[in-house]
Amino acid sequence: MMLGAAIFGGSHNNSATAIWEAGVGLETEIAQLRRGDLDALSTLLTRYQNRLYRYLLRMVRQPAEAEDLFQQTWLRVAEKIHNYDQNRNFDAWLFTLARNLAIDHLRRLRPESLDEPVGDHAGGESAAARLVSRETPALDRVLARERTSRLADAMETLPVIQREVLTLRFEEELKLEEIAEILGAPLSTVKTRLRRALDRLRGNLESQFPGENWQ
Amino acid sequence: MSDHDKIRELLPLAAAEVLDQQEERLLAEHLRTCSVCAAQLEEWRLLAGGLRRLPTPQPRGVVVERARAMAQIRLTEHLEHQWNRGVMTGLIAFAWILTLLSWPVFRFISGGFLSMLDPQFSHTWLVFCVFTTLVWAGGGAAAILLSMQQRRERSLA
């Protein structure tokens, strides 16, 4: 019991220290970037590349478009970093830049409302195929992968503003306040959007695959 | 809307872990007596768990490297632009100070301090200032137009 407590206590302290160090590291990188340090830009890009790309892909659904927006976002970071307020959350600032670019892009492509549900892809592989194709094949994970595929596909049928709130909460694991900052919306709106997105996602899944377990 | 319906609306938000303290308390109290909602919450949690475990798609290496290179170039350009602007502002300020001071200093050296109190001196100096202002404003406007033209050409390229 004591040994367990000691281990858990130690591990908790270690993880807290790691989080604190990561935060300090991020602040240092941002300060260096504001001074024009190219290495800091490179480090930040490496730190955020997967999260940012995932968010953009969830928004626009097409990898080629997400890649283009990914590049544009980093150009925007290089241009705007001097205007960044260091008291502000960097994640929220970065995702706001990416969101603005993605929304502009989607408005150019689809001038109709962004809260309309989307149809099938115009072309290319499905979300499931894209996501699963990068996973390591393993027989004991086939069922889980199948469920994941269905979930990813169902998520893609949601309207942009619902996909976005789901990815920010569940994949990026941002707090409600951070999501509200990115969306430029009050907390109550974010909550409503989140609830509706989950309702709709569950409805879609239940109508397509009744009785399925989505864990 | 009954209390039960209100609580059901909280279930997806509970699975997303975004309830405030009051909502959490309400939910906890309701769940103690309602097994239907407890089962529903479990299902929502399974869905939330599935969303959290969606695989992370990764950008291609070549895209990341291109983004890195482009952003570094843009940052360098931005810094150069800032430096140039700073140098230009400093030079203009220096030139202005030099221009405005040169005439009184010249008169002070050539005619002594009293010559500066001469009403004729103030008049001449005023004309000199207006003339210099016009020259500088003309030069500044030309520089701005040239820089705008250059920027337009660069963006078209």
Strand content of chain A: under 5%
Task: Show unreliable segments of chain B.
Answer: none
Tell me the β content of chain B.
under 5%
- Summed up, the helix count of chain B is 5
Figure out the total of helices of chain A. Answer: 9
Distance between the termini of chain B: 61 Å
Largest sheet of chain A: none
| Most extensive interface | A-B, 52 and 36 residues
Q: Please name the CATH topology of the largest domain in chain A.
A: Arc Repressor Mutant, subunit A
Q: For the CA atoms, what is the radius of gyration of chain A? A: 19 Å
Shape of chain B: elongated
Question: How many strand elements of chain A?
Answer: 0
Please provide the ordered H/E string of secondary-structure elements of chain B: HHHHH
Key traits:
heterodimer; A: Rna Polymerase Sigma Factor, Chain: A; Arc Repressor Mutant, subunit A; 2 domains; 9 helices; B: 157 residues; mainly alpha; 5 helices; elongated
Task: Summarize the helices and strands and which ones pair or pack.
The complex is a heterodimer of chains A (215) and B (157).
Chain A: H1 2-34, H2 38-60, H3 63-80, H4 90-109, H5 127-132, H6 142-156, H7 160-171, H8 176-183, H9 187-208
Helix pairs in contact in A: 1-2, 2-3, 2-4, 2-7, 3-4, 4-8, 7-9, 8-9
Chain B: H1 3-15, H2 21-33, H3 35-52, H4 61-111, H5 119-156
Description:
The complex is a heterodimer of chains A (215) and B (157). Chain A has 215 residues and is an all-alpha fold. Chain A has 2 domains: 13-109, Rna Polymerase Sigma Factor, Chain: A (Orthogonal Bundle), CATH 1.10.1740.10; 114-215, Winged helix-like DNA-binding domain superfamily/Winged helix DNA-binding domain (Arc Repressor Mutant, subunit A). Chain A has 9 helices and no strands. The two termini of chain A are 32 Å apart. Chain B is mostly helical and 157 residues long. Helix content of chain B is 85%, strand content 0%. Chain B is built from 5 helices and no strands. In chain B, helix 1 packs parallel to helix 3 (35-52). The mean pLDDT of chain B is 82. The A-B interface holds A 33, 36, 38, 41-42, 45-46, 49-51, 53-54, 57, 63, 66-67, 70-71, 74-75, 77-79, 81-82, 130-132, 134-135, 147-148, 151-152, 155, 166, 169-171, 173, 176, 191, 194-195, 198-199, 201-202, 205, 213-215 and B 9, 12-13, 15-16, 18, 44, 46-60, 63-64, 66-68, 70-72, 74-76, 78-79, 82.
